[in-house]
Amino acid sequence: MLWEAMLNSSLVTGLKTLQYWSRWQQLNSPCLWDEATSILQIVFLGILLLHFIWKAVDLLCKRRKEVVAVAKHPSDVKYGLSYKVSIACSVLEMGTHLTVLLQQQKQSWPQCKFTVPILSPEIRQIIIWAITLLTLFQIHSSKHIKFPWVLRTWWACSFLFSCGHATLDVYFTITNHDKIRLNTFLDFVDLLASTCLLGISVRGKAGTVFNITNGITDPLLNVKKTEKPSESKKNCLYGKATVFQLISFSWLNPLFAIGIKKPLDQDEVPDVDTKDSAAFLSHFLDECLKHIEEKDRTRRPSIYKAMVLFIRKKAAINASFAVVSAGASYVGPYLIDGFVNFLNEKKSENFWSGYLIALGFLGAKMVETTAQRQWIFGARQLGLRLRAALTSHIYRKGLLLSSQSRQSRTSGEIINYMSVDVQRISDFMWYLNTIWQLPVQISLAVLVLHTHLGLGSVVALGATLAVMACNIPMTRLQKRYQSEIMKAKDERMKGTSEVLRNLRILKLQAWDSRYLHKLENLRRIEYDWIWKSLRLSAVSSFIFWGSPTFISVVTFGACALMGIPLTAGRVLSALATFRMLQDPIFSLPELLSTIAQSKVSADRVASYLQLEDEIKLEDIEFVTKDETEFEVEIKDGTFSWGRDAGPSRPTIDGIQLQVKRGMKVAICGAVGSGKSSLLSCILGEMTKLSGTVKISGTKAYVPQSPWILSGTVRDNILFRNHFDCAKYERTVKACALMKDFELFPAGDATEIGERGINMSGGQKQRIQIARAVYHDADIYLLDDPFSAVDAHTGTQLFEDCLMGVLKDKTVLYVTHQVEFLPAADLILVMKNGRIAQSGTFEEVLKQKQNIGFEVLVGAHSRALECVLRAGSSNRTSRTEVAEDNSSKDITPKHGPGHNSSCIERKKVEARLVQDEEREKGSIGRQVYWSYLTTVKRGALVPIIILAQSMFQGLQIGSNYWMAWACPAGGTEPIAGINFVLLVYTLVAVGGSACVFIRALLVAVAGILTSQKLFTNMLHSIFRAPMAFFDSTPTGRILNRASTDQSVLDLEMPNRLGWCAFSVIQLLGTIAVMSQVAWQVFVIFIPVTAICIWYQRYYTPTARELARLAGIQLAPILQHFGESISGAATIRAFEQKDRFIDTNLSLIDRHSRSWFHNVSTMEWLSFRLNQLSNFVFAFSLVVLVTLPEGMINPSIAGLAVTYGINLNVLQATVIWCICNAENKMISVERILQYSNITSEAPLVIEDCRPPNDWPQIGTIRFINLEIRYAEHLPSVLKHITCTFPGKKKVGIVGRTGSGKSTLIQGIFRIVEPREGSVIIDDIDVSKIGLHDLRSRLSIIPQDPTMFEGTVRGNLDPLEQYSDNDIWQVLDKCQLGAVVHANEEKLDSKVVENGENWSVGQRQLICLGRALLKKSNILVLDEATASVDSATDGVIQKIIRHEFGDRTIVTIAHRIHTVIDSDLVLVLDEGRIAEFDTPTKLLERGESFFSRLIKEYSMRSQNFNSLAKLHN
Predict the structure, then answer these.
(1) Which of 465, 474, 463, 460 is CA-nearest to residue 438?
(2) Which end of the chain has fewer CB atoms at under 10 Å, N or C?
(3) DSSP string covering 1173-1241, please?
């Protein structure tokens, strides 16, 4: 009974439907169309009328106020083309409808009857167009720049009305065999006018220009035209967009209008919305973490929970769009069976049912594509927000990390967190919506299959789940590969970062080839894991393309067994559904793989952000000045560099210290005794194990290794403090910088390179001292401030700065210069981490405790006596000096003094660090050609394209076979279902095999190309001259080695491959559709032309935005690197918030370009999708309209099956081309650094020196002139002299005189502009660089250690035995220290040697020279960071070990050069004096004599005190 009732109900419903259709057909179609559109027309009539009245009233009120102003300043109106065309078209529209109305009044045409005659269609149209004209005239009088939205919407709707009316006229004219009448002609005129108005409404601009003839305002207008268009920077186009603009992405139109005219600059890119700004997002993530912390009651809130809280609202909106898009995508496959049945029964069916099905197809596709664009854009925006928030938190964490944490997390690793891991986490936001789409897509697919195949859908579901299950173990394996790739990338980036920081040392030591090989080995490990991952991806690709074949074969076979008839409509509907199932099948492994990658990256970032070993400000107690008389007070202080170090292993122990206001406290002691650590514990840099530390007042800190920011000299001194002219001048004079400002090409506006690369050690030291002095703090902590400056400058600094401008300040200074101790109010002698002695200089000398202070004093006394003896002696030198070595008393040429009350900036362009290279315009064909032909000269490319073409052909063939073999009716298949399925299976499997071959070849070609380009770039960088690194921040190189290289490794092959694959797919789809409906080309060709125009309009803007985004990433990494290295200084100056704000600003600059780049991609995709939708709809209308018998319904159904994806394919082609061009920018950037101008060859086979060269070690300089860059002045000027072989030559001169540059000239770190350097009769410019540098030894000014072991730092080339190394360590006073470690020679050295003191690092550098035993040894301030006693021991070792060799010494300590055979005095890059010390001292007016006298006078007070206590 139930089934009978249901059947009767179905019959009744069917009869009602038939009755409805019969009544529908009885209506006259034109009248039916008029009835359907009447409601919309009346609504728009009311809206236009209200809009006109409101504007008219508003204009009347304004005109009363402005009538006087207008009379005084009449305006000249220039009408634009859009405005004129809109007036003409509106008049034409009104005229056509008026003509139709007049003809109807004459009763020449049949009329439709309406209840209210006044509301007939033509009268409505005339009224609407009249109001339209009035509104257009209002635009002129109210000075609108754009047309109102009401008009633009009406014009768009009128276009649709005109299209419908014209289509019906044509249809009825053809079907009724009528003649073309006047009304049909008028409809086409109406369509033409409405089409023009549609174009104007899309553009939106009226094009009217108002020129106000006012003499006062004219100049301002002129100025505005010449200004840089930076106003957009202050505006946010996205934040001001309307709903329609957000849906259509038309809010980007102003940006495209600029980008099509000229290459975009950063200032022309609009700002991001407030909710997308880094400051807002960072604060929001803080609130999320705080909420989780309060909710879970934990001190370590989960980063994962915070991220979920951070994204949940935006993710929910994206999810809703994604679900709507997924649901709409299955409407097409559901309607295919009905469409094929309609075509098969066209005689009995009404045309309107076919048109309604086509309308259903179109509506579903429009909803799908619109929702798809919104969720993809939302996902990108969400990724941007998460990336900005995490990057800012990683930066903030870096500023708070303790020393131990920084040793465990190197800067290279943290850069990877910022550039790679955060990017992967943000990319996951795109895949996040797949989680919601998967169940919707699979459920809808099963529902569609169940509708057509019944129980066969269950089999299809099982096959789908089986394919998905196969991907799970592959995903686990992929996760492992990704983890290993990231580990290998970390190691490579860590090594690359270290090499780039210390490349000058590597070149000086001739170790560059060794470290190049080391980086290549690290890359090889990464390469192996990437290759394994790509092979697995090729298998995944095979499963992706083969899954529809497997599922369809299993499903159709099951249907055959179950007796379910396979008609053409059912088969085609199922095939379309299986193709739709490709997405969820492929999305699952890709989703799982992305989850694996993101999980690895998120774990790494979370573990970093959750590190608890931070600098704890609560370890330091800050008290006000009225509470205590002490500005620094430590009681029972015990400190350690690591929190895991227990009380048994403290670094600093038993500290009792009280420093009153205004006291000068000197800290001295042997190397490694804990001097710098004592300052660090006052700063709060060390972990406090016990005791109390109280500070009263602000702090300023000068570290031992100078920390200089990229920027101008003045910026470094001001350090963002307000500029006070008098205070600034007083500061630079006290810090002895006035003379340097005269020498700098642009004075204090001279730009400093990264890490102060273009400044001497003394200049960098004095700049950071000036920074501290200008800060005007209460407490000054100076860590060995005099070591890097010469004796004269050191004296000036001590007297004018320390005892001058800082006389009322509290100063604690570490020093190895004993002569600066007597002036101190308190001296602290450090030994083994304790204060061994304390008191005034006299008190400490009286204490005979054998602590070591008397050793330091004794060593200094002996050095002083040596200098004094030399000064009083008049004996002649036994060394005969060649004629060209005669004394040259060149009077130093001083520049004009500063008589003005303030230092003025010189208007000279002397930038060292130029803006990053950025190509403009389209990416050259050479870039594509270079990428495609790097491997096998491009031989693999045609094979890949052939494999994809074969796959496409076989896939179309298999589907064509099923559509042809299965009849449209319910009859038996042509050759039996088993044979049909066998042929289908064989053809489809062959296609899948082609895909596997293609995927494997793409992986092979991609990884080999990536490796080749990486190797070329690495070799090019290593062979680049130092001038390149002086002017190129390491962040730019690291950005290419990290982000751009990742694109080449994992993205570029597929991006470029998909360009070809999508074109092949599109051609295949067009071929199938043209088989049944060639008429589709009538609209397809113009639409394709529009798509190409859109692509060309889009590309210039998007390309420049992608370039800008790539460029703006490097400053973030560079700023982070600088901040990490100077974190202690930033914290001491309490500038943490300022640096965080700078980081947020840099993130926003990158976000601006990146956000608008991805937005432009959605702008293009939206337009291409809608155009493709209309092409597909037109093809359906053609299929419906064609008479029966002209086409095979089954093949027509196949065309529809392919046409469903036409919008996706057509958009994919353009999108892939644009995306590949954007990604090709990474190739372009890597190629930029693959063709750097190389320095001289390492080895010149025809000019190799003898194996024992240099034997004597004579160095001759002939008219040597050196400059660091062509646009910079010469540093050395016409140097001509000879250093005799096997003699000791001392080089002195004030800081910045060119001493270190002369050494670099010997090693050819800087090539001479003129002149030559000859060593033992061989011109060094004629031999290879490796032959030159490997035969010389140098102890550089900046002591450098590499991460690894002690053995690796002393002997990286592995040429010496352990016994040799131990002997060298003992000679360098480090044997006991290394023996004390359990690992001995394998003792760990962390990044930058941070776990060794600066003095110990200097001793390691001495050990390298002792191992090498070259005949020429260069000492560049080799003992600046060690105490006097250690210095004496080192000098003794050098005299003993290198007694019969040439020694060139640059020293600021006079006693280290006083016993030299010759002394060269440099001043402003010229030879001031060159002779034996005795002869130079004979002339009292000589520079060297003045230096000795000054040193003697400075030490006189100390000498007398020392004698009193001996």
Answers:
(1) 465
(2) N
(3) HHHHHHHHHHHHHSPTTSS-HHHHHHHHHHHTTHHHHHHHHHHHHHHHHHHHHHHHHHHHTTSPPP-S-
How does DSSP classify residue 215?
A: T
The interaxial angle of helices 2-26 and 351-400, nearest 10 deg, is: 100
Q: Which helix (H) or strand (E) holds 693?
A: strand 687-695
Q: Quick one: how far is CA 1466 from the chain centroid?
A: 44
Query: What's the CA gap between 1117 and 1033, in Å, rounded?
Result: 10
Place of tokens 């950071």: 768
**pLDDT at site 859:** 59
Cα gap 452→571, rounded to integer Å: 9
What's the distance, CA 1447 to chain centroid? 47
Q: Which DSSP category does 420 fall into?
A: I
Tell me how far apart the alpha carbons of residues 1428 and 860 are, in angstroms, rounded to a whole number: 6
The Cα 1260–Cα 1285 span in angstroms is 10
CA 736 – CA 594 distance, rounded (Å):
58
Burial of 743 (0-12, 13-18, 19+ CB in 10 A): middle
If you ran DSSP here, which 8-state letter would residue 645 be given?
Answer: S
Q: 66 pLDDT exceeds 70?
A: no
- 983, containing H or E segment: helix 977-1022
Q: Are 666 and 679 in contact (CB under 8 A)?
A: no
What distance lies between CA 1116 and its chain's CA centroid? 7
Q: How far is CA 806 from the centre of its chain?
A: 43
Question: How many residues would you count in the chain?
Answer: 1510
Residue 239 is classified by DSSP as T
Q: How far apart are CA 747 and CA 756, in angstroms?
A: 15
Higher model confidence: residue 1332 or residue 194?
1332
Do the beta carbons of residue 1431 and residue 1453 sit within 8 Å? yes
pLDDT at position 890 is 36
Helix-helix angle 1193-1203:331-344, to 10 degrees = 160
Kindly report the number of other CB atoms within 10 A of residue 1406's CB atom. 24
Q: Nearest 5 degrees, angle CA 820-CA 824-CA 827?
A: 95
CA 1400 to each of CA 1114, 1370, 1395: distance values in angstroms, whole numbers, following the listed order: 34, 13, 10
On the 0-12 / 13-18 / 19+ scale of CB atoms within 10 A, 443 is: middle
> CA of 475: how far to CAs of 480, 603, 605, in Å?
9, 18, 22
**Residue whose structure tokens are 């692509």:** 1095
Q: How far apart are CA 1162 and CA 1165, in angstroms?
A: 5
pLDDT at 1388 over 80: yes
d(CA 630, CA 618): 19
Q: What would you report as the CA-atom Rg of the chain, rounded to the nearest whole angstrom?
A: 41
List 1291's β-bridge partners, or say none.
Answer: 1450, 1464
- Residue 1254: cis peptide before it, omega within 30 degrees of 0: yes
Q: Give residue 1433's pLDDT.
A: 74
Q: Is the pLDDT of residue 649 over 90?
A: no
| Per-residue pLDDT, 17 | 36
Write out pLDDT tens, residues 669-721: 877 788 888 888 888 888 888 889 999 989 999 988 888 888 888 988 998 88
Residues 6+ apart with CB under 8 A from 126: 94, 97, 98, 101
Q: What confidence tens digit (pLDDT) does each residue in 1309-1325 have?
A: 888 888 999 998 899 98
Report the pLDDT averaged over residues 499-525: 89
CA–CA separation, 408 and 1285 (whole Å):
47
Task: Write out the two tokens for 1455.
Answer: 């006693």
CB 688 within 8 A of CB 639: yes
pLDDT single digits (tens) 739-785: 888 877 778 888 787 666 667 777 888 899 999 999 889 999 998 88
Residue 811 banded pLDDT, cuts 50, 70, 90: very high
